[in-house]
Amino acid sequence: MEELVYLNGILVSPSLATISPFDHGFLYGYGLFETMRSYSGVIFRLEHHLSRLQKAAETLGLHSQLLSVDLKKACYDVLEANSLSDARLRLTISAGEGDIVPNPSTCKSITVFIVARKLASISAQSYEKGFKTIVSSLRRNSQSPLSRLKTSCYLENVIARQEMKVAGVDEIILLNEAGFITEGSSSNIFCASKGILLTPALSCGALPGITRETVLELAKELDISTTETEITLETLLQADEAFCTNSIIEVMPMTYISDKPVGTGKPGALTTRLSHAYRKLVASYQTKRTD
């Protein structure tokens, strides 16, 4: 079966999905994206992803054009056209074709692109082992408004991930200009000490992750005290346990930082509790198609 992708209202073969070389997403990274996961044909927290995208589009001045696109239907159309059940979806929008100068007002209409690929389940052994991490040599600018947006100008994260690959670890931690934890290259970060769950405040330069938001909601339901605050690397190293979150890995234990164990070097009780609660929530979504 030939793969089909969505481009500006049409489902086409990737070989026919052409985008102008003058698209400002290509020329200047003037765009946004969302990465989502579907379970049994249901896209988990789709409405939350689309809400974040719309808010970011307001910042970039793309909101009004995006309102005319039924993104929810488009995402499901791509899933169904490719007969996918458990999948990774990437939704990208850009300012579209314009002049060769960095002037978005010259762009005629936005570009909307969606692709979905089959996603193999992460093994239970991976969660039992947890992620090994290091600290990146890069520093995130917490004062930049881009730190709170999931933009297609993603080069900083890509460079960090190259550093991660060279080190042979699973994730890499980014600090901000003041030395506080922001996030991983593709994940949000949590740690726990004495039963209190900590995560970097958005003001530190962290992305408002959908899984991050979900975990904070679940923690409240489970009566786990949470704090969004400035976290030093020392605090993270001395934590009882830690974990990373994103839509694909869900709640992944962080067991080592630069060969130093976090806590016992194994998944902690609070991490396991939140992971079970997250999967229970996912299971409840598989019986409906409202998000």
Offer a few descriptive terms.
291 residues; D-amino Acid Aminotransferase, Chain A, domain 1; 2 domains; nine-stranded mixed sheet; 9 helices; 15 strands; 30% helix; 29% strand
Walk me through this protein's architecture.
With 291 residues, the protein is an alpha+beta fold. The protein folds into two domains: 5-118, D-amino Acid Aminotransferase, Chain A, domain 1 (2-Layer Sandwich), CATH 3.30.470; 124-284, D-amino Acid Aminotransferase, subunit A, domain 2 (D-amino Acid Aminotransferase, Chain A, domain 2, Alpha-Beta Barrel). Helix content is 30%, strand content 29%. The chain contains nine helices and 15 strands. It has helices spanning 24-28, 46-60, 63-66, 71-81, 124-129, 155-167, 210-221, 233-237, 269-285, and strands at 5-7, 10-12, 31-39, 42-43, 87-94, 111-118, 131-140, 171-176, 181-184, 188-193, 196-200, 226-229, 241-246, 250-257, 260-261. Strands 7, 8, 9, 10, 11, 12, 13, 14 and 15 form a nine-stranded mixed β-sheet that branches. Strands 2-1-6-5-3-4 form a six-stranded antiparallel β-sheet. Strand 3 (31-39) and strand 4 (42-43) form a beta hairpin. The longest helix has 17 residues, at 269-285. The protein is globular, with a radius of gyration of 19 Å. The protein starts with a strand and ends in a 6-residue tail after the last helix. The mean pLDDT is 96.
